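ingest -> validate -> predict -> emit
validate: passed (alphabet ok, no gaps, 385 aa)
predict: started
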Amino acid sequence: MRRLWLIFAQAVTISVAVLFVLNTLKPEWLRGATPASVIAILEAPSTGERTPATGSYAQAAQQSMPAVVHIFTSKAGRSQRHPLFDDPLFRHFFGERPGNSPNQRESGLGSGVIVSPDGYVLTNNHVIETADAIEVALNDGRKYPAQLIGRDPETDLAVLRVDTGGQLPAITLSASDSLSVGDVVLAIGNPFGVGQTVTMGIVSALGRSQLGINTFENYIQTDAAINPGNSGGALVDSAGHLVGINTAIYSRSGGSLGIGFAIPVSIARNVLTQIVSTGEVIRGWVGVEIQDLTPELAESFGFADARGTLIAGVLRGSPAERAGIRPGDVLIELDGAAVRDPKTMLDMVAALPPGREATFRIRRGGQEIELGVEIGRRPTPQPSR
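emit:
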């Protein structure tokens, strides 16, 4: 009996070994099935490089994305004091607590654009305005501390610089007059901190102003999706050239509604050049308050038409007061160029260098007179902290 049991055990062992070998090398023999059929599929021939599909903007995106960076900011803050600390009963049982709340760090994020291989970065002023520390993360993941070179609150632009010890991928700036309504544009940035993102749209309008966002407004409007975190990022054309700096959106929910605004590259170039050269932006100023001359106002002043812009007020000691300009005057020409509205006048005066004398042609009562005004320097806005 013992011998039979040994023979049985050896047979079972050999059988298990055979099954294991067959299951490993020829599993289909055990299943009694033929090998699975091969599905016939069609594949495009491999050429080594991918050819962009018709209508694709991959080349423009690939050309400009390395120059768009993420900007991380931080500043000192204080946590709110708990209301219980002011309760007399709480203080009776637990004693006094320190009056100062512990310091905390508040963080923020935005985007920026490398505009020079030397490490100069353009971004929005509101991205870095209150920051104590600024860090720039490149497209390849490298992070560097950034130095604030200068900022211009009146256009909401700022210039940073990062020192990497080498050359950086810089974006190509477009010609200032190369954009038209209907052109395709790409918005590149770091929305909501999810990482670099590219969205596509068209130029919806040019020269948008009187939005109440900044002092000097001449925005590009686009329906390319721009969200929080995109501020300071690049708006590029279909060739990958920088046409604007994304700066604001119109939204009731905080997300994109298809109405975004970018600062044109012509303004950004001028601000960049001045800040890199002098550390600030210098503009002309005459010290007047201006407003639209409506047909009703023109009629009340006895004017036959509503040409020009109304001088509503004159600051004491300003260049305008010294030149003899009075409230109620209507400016119609500046150095021979027609003044159509307050924005035109603001831009024309700001473009004049301080110290130069400009000719103001105004209407006063029923006559037109010319006054020479020595242009002053526009006061620098105080930072909001």
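The chain has nine helices and 20 strands.
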